[in-house]
Amino acid sequence: MLSRVAESLFWMSRYFERAENTARFLDVNFNLMLDLNSITTVDHPNYWSPLIMVMSDPEDFRAHYSEYNAHNVTDYLVFNRQNSSSIISSIGMARENARSIIESISSEMWEQLNNLYHFLQSVTPQQVHNDPYSFYKEIKNASHLFQGITDNTFSRNEGWDFVQIGKYLERADNAARLIDVKYHMLMPKRGQNLDLVKNSVDIIQWMAVLKSCSALEAFRKVYLSKIDPDNILRFLILDRTFPRSITFSICAAQEALWRISGSSLHRYTNNVDRLIGKMDAELSYTTVDDIHLQGVHDFLEDIQKGVIKVGEQLHLLYFAYHTPKIEPIDVTEGLTFTGITGGRANWSQSQQQQQQQ
Amino acid sequence: MTRLFEHYDACTDRFFDEVIAKNGVPRQHYDKMMRRFAQLSVDDIHARRQLVNIFFRNQGITFTVYGVDEGIERIFPFDLIPRIIPAPEWECIERGLLQRITALNEFLSDIYHDQKILKDKIIPADLVLGSKHFCREFVGVRPPLGVYIHVTGSDLIRDADGRYMVLEDNLRTPSGVSYMLQNRQAMKRAFPVLFDRYKVRPVDSYPQQLLRTLQEISPTQKADPKVVVLTPGIYNSAYFEHSFLAQQMGVQLTEGRDLVVNNNKVYTRTTRGLQRVDVIYRRLDDDFLDPLVFRPDSKLGVAGLINAYRKGNVALANAIGTGVADDKVIYSFVPDIIRYYLGEDPILKNVETWLPSNPKHLKYILENLDKLVVKAANESGGYGMLVGPHATQEEREKFAEMIVANPRNYIAQPTISLSRHPSFIGDSEVAACHIDLRPYVLYGKSPSIVPGGLTRVALKKGSLVVNSSQGGGSKDTWVIDI
Fold it and tell me: Do A2 and B172 count as a contact with CB atoms less than 8 A apart?
């Protein structure tokens, strides 16, 4: 498979997953606000600023908006084209990547991604404000449909594996960020008795975290209704069966990497496999007590760093083979999206626009 | 006449109408179509248009307009009324094009080798050797099978008497064939009943034929030579077509940076290392192919590609330097070229052409600018032209200056009243719009043509410019057995 095609498959999948996760966070936050409206207002900044911390760059947000509230945060994370991780940017970049390899994916995959893109172009902020539930549901369903279509129409070759790697690395990274921020907000304060922490507001918040990972029902099946922070960490980080947990995601990415390289347990053949194997081993033999010993924040930060390192090595091994140095050029007018981080860049746009007979 | 055609004005005294004959009744091969449309209400038409639009949009069938701010992609406008060509008429077109392409290939082979036609003074040598697209570097290089133009798309028009004429030859990287294929799909979806009533010759085998042509020119003796399509990239106006053809042929779509030349052999960069390439169907201008030989600033090409080509390690379709034969100045000599190489009279006529480099012609051109169409010799896509009767005095004066300053770079032709065809302007009105026809000729071991082509239509009332970049649309084109 062409290195460029592999790279675009990887990023297409990654950006789509990112858009889905952003939609999940926002959706749950709206629901949470409704649950809590007896004690706070929907626009309370304490409930909106964490979303920016998870998904984006607070400094960049500050450059565009004066305060954290429902409207501004939604606008920034859904519609803002300058924000490269907004839903509209993510889907745009997923689509640009797909467009550059349109002959390599199934036409059904393209149609689905293209549909979502056009749907997003047609939605107004007012519509999202009036009915956030339907809008986020639309995004989540579109993502699920895309994955289902991919499963059912895309050959199980290397390309499929790169799609899986993109999806699961992004999911592991997003989950780590989400837990990190929520834990920071809700963690037991020094000297505080754990039982006291379990007041109703915190439980609602933790339930929101589970919901944003579609994990509440699966969690209950394992831990019944014992919603305490440790069980939640155990479930969202260490569970080996739940498809949105960090361990599951890392494990799934590892399996895809093995299929590409032919590596197997304890026998790595390259640096990517070594790094992901290390992450998998650490997660496999870690307990919640170990996580506390290291510090939850540190532990989750290590996961995010690990994902970045795997991404770098993946790039060097499979995508960057003999790649000439590409100088980025200014993006000219008429382009909806600026640059595609990782992978495709808008280089030489003017030359590409040569006349066709 | 049906309701849709109630206000249709064929003006058969001034124009050749494809559907309505001089006596005011539909031509026989359009009869069934007219009766079918008679049964359709405006709502039916609207519903079918929606169906087609969704089909095109979902397939990502869009093209890019350069230099426009509002969004970069547009759906190529598609007209629901098909153009129908009866088999005998088509066979004449087919013979004419095969004759023309064969002669043009001989011409290219000659001017890149012995240059007999120049020595015999059939064409002034300076016009050929001075052409922007003449590649001195390729004199003496013989492409596989001696074929230069593997894919061509000549533009045909019909004059007021309905005679087919060649307006221009596109011998470098002709585009539009994907629309021919997709228009057919859309038409089958929207009008299955009508389609069923005609015996329409299929065009669907084009991608297979293209692949076979490309494999035939492989310089290596492999059972399954590796073919790739080379595109400038996703911002090119015809990117959809490049990816579509690659997908239909089942070959890789590559950009310049996917290819690397090592020891005069071309390889793709893959996740498993380098893989040898035998044939490149390139949709990239000569200028950008190789920064070491042509434009050094090209970021789209492959360093070393030209040397690999000269060594015979890779085939390019089309060959390099074919643009000299579709130079609009050389165009005016094509009837002579046909007579010279084949000893036959041309089956398809040329449009009368004046060359400013000839002083007598120049005088005529400058005196009659308001009646003529002036075109730059080496532009395409409808850019760089003046339609005299529709231009302002100021525009004509500007062109007059440019012509005098650089006579070799222009040609002038009479304003041909292209034939007209009923087309939808909105859902409820059918008007007569000007059309042309671009059939596609493939040339490997021998030349062949898929029965049909792209009918382009100027959807602006009265406009003569059918290029998609200038507001044109297209129609499905049916070659039918009667």
Answer: no
Task: Tell whether domain B352-415 is in CATH 3.30.1490.270.
Answer: yes
Question: What is the rounded distance in angstroms from the CA atom of residue A25 to the CA atom of residue A212?
Answer: 6
Does residue A143 share a domain with residue A233? no
Interface residue of B61, B170, B234 to substitute, partner A, most A CBs within 10 Å: B234
- Chain B within 8 Å of A145 (Cβ-Cβ)? no
Mean pLDDT for A128-135 is 91
Q: For residue B246, which phi and psi values (nearest 5 degrees)?
A: -60, -45
Nearest-by-Cβ selection for B269 from A3, A114, A348: A3
Distances (CA, A) of B32 to A213, A221, B20, B94: 59, 67, 13, 25
> Does the CB of A101 have a partner CB in chain B at under 8 Å?
yes
Facing residue for A352 by CB, picked from B236, B257, B258: B236
Same domain assignment for residues A172 and A110: no
Chain A CB contacts of B383 under 8 Å are: 355
Q: Is residue A192 part of a domain?
A: no
Kindly tell me if the per-residue pLDDT of B47 is higher than 60: yes
Has residue A346 been placed in a domain?
Answer: no
Residue B222 has pLDDT above 80, yes or no: yes
Residue A355 has pLDDT above 70, yes or no: no
Residue boundaries of the structural domains of chain B: 352-415
Chain A CB contacts of B271 below 8 Å: 1-3, 6, 158, 260, 318-319, 321
pLDDT bin (cut points 50, 70, 90) of residue A324 is: very low
Helix (H, G, I), strand (E, B) or coil at B79: strand
Considering the domain architecture, whether residues A5 and A109 belong to the same structural domain is answered as yes
**Shortest Cα distance, chain A CAs vs residue B385, angstroms:** 14
Residue A326: the pLDDT is 42
User: Nearest residue of B to residue A111 by CA position?
Assistant: B58
Within a domain: A251: yes
User: Which has the closest alpha carbon to A296: A232, A203, A219?
Assistant: A232
Domain total of chain A: 2
Residue B68 pLDDT: 46
Detail the DSSP E strand segments found in B109-174.
Answer: 151-153, 155-158, 164-168
- A323 touching B (Cβ < 8 Å): yes
Check CB contact under 8 Å for A354 and B288: yes
- Please give the residue range of the domain that contains residue A218: 162-187+198-322
The share of chain A scoring above pLDDT 70, in percent, equals 85
Q: What is the ipTM of this complex?
A: 0.72
Q: What pTM was estimated for this model as a whole? A: 0.82
Pairs of CB atoms within 8 A across A/B? 124
| Burial class of B108 by CB neighbour count within 10 A (0 to 12, 13 to 18, 19+) | buried
Is residue A183 domain-shared with residue A150, that is, in the same domain? no
Both A108 and A203 in one domain: the answer is: no
Q: Is residue A341 part of a domain?
A: no
CB-based burial label for A295 (10 Å; 0-12, 13-18, 19+): exposed
Of B470 and A225, which is predicted with more confidence? A225
The pLDDT score that the predictor gives to residue B425 is 83
A257–chain B Cβ distance below 8 A for any pair: no
The reply to whether residue B300 touches residue A118, judged by beta carbons under 8 angstroms, is no
A2 and A107 fall within a common domain: yes
Q: How many Å apart are CA B435 and CA A139, to the nearest integer?
A: 43
Together in a domain, A58 and A144: yes
A173 and A289 in a single domain? The answer is yes
| Residue A344 pLDDT > 70 | no
Is pLDDT above 80 for A333? no
Contact A114 B60 (CB under 8 A): yes
**Closest partner CB to B257 (pick from A4, A352, A357):** A4
